[in-house]
Design the sequence.
């Protein structure tokens, strides 16, 4: 699969699967994960879509240039990937930080977007305390210090109990490695100024799609 050099020289690792003539669905994962987060979705989704997955800079097999990384920079990486693949327009599914990148694309590269799916994300974090707390924990206890808490946030108790352990062990092992690479990308040990950017100016009406009884606007 292609490794694509974007405009500042960073190499972005990309995997493309599915029918050549199908609509393109591009997936963007959460902070500290790589494109394999979507492995279980590949088989069913490639029945309907040309699937594009990538490792964000600082993650997986992509380059780890010195930080700091802004949301504009992360968005321009996506545009560079699309240009290199000769893809004019995509459907975008972004989870968490991937949803924040999607918001930048929607505001600044709308001509490249058909449908925009923003999952479990936000346009602004007014309270930075949660991120500062996680950074402090990483500095004091290392990257392994945040893995257990992330497992509890990402997977329900019933899932963790029913799982044979292989999936969750895989996440623990690879999350630690990916976060380690991200940490080296920024002198503040994993802090990404992109997480603190305010996108409300572009999404002022704050419309939201609600998908379940416990979802909140």
Sequence:
């Amino acid at each position: 699969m292609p490794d694509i050099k974007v405009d500042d020289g960073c190499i972005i690792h990309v995997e493309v699967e599915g029918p050549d003539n199908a609509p393109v669905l591009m997936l963007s994962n959460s902070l500290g994960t790589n494109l394999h987060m979507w492995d279980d979705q590949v088989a069913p989704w490639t029945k309907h879509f040309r699937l594009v997955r990538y490792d964000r800079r600082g993650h997986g097999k992509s380059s780890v240039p010195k930080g700091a990384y802004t949301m504009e920079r992360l968005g321009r990486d996506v545009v560079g990937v699309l240009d290199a693949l000769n893809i004019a327009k995509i459907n975008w599914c972004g989870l968490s930080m991937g949803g924040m990148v999607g918001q930048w694309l929607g505001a600044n590269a709308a001509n490249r977007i058909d449908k925009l799916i923003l999952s479990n994300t936000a346009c602004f974090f007014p309270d930075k305390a949660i991120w500062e707390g996680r950074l402090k924990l990483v500095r004091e206890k290392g990257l392994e210090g945040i893995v257990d808490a992330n497992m509890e946030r990402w997977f329900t108790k019933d899932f963790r109990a029913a799982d044979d352990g292989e999936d969750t062990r895989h996440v623990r092992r690879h999350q630690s490695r990916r976060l380690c690479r991200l940490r080296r990308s920024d002198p503040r040990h994993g802090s990404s100024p992109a997480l603190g950017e305010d996108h409300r100016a572009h999404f002022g009406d704050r419309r939201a799609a609600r998908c379940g009884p416990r979802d909140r606007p």
In short: The helical segments are 39-45, 71-84, 97-108, 129-141, 144-154, 157-162, 166-184. Residues 166-184 form the longest helix (19 residues).
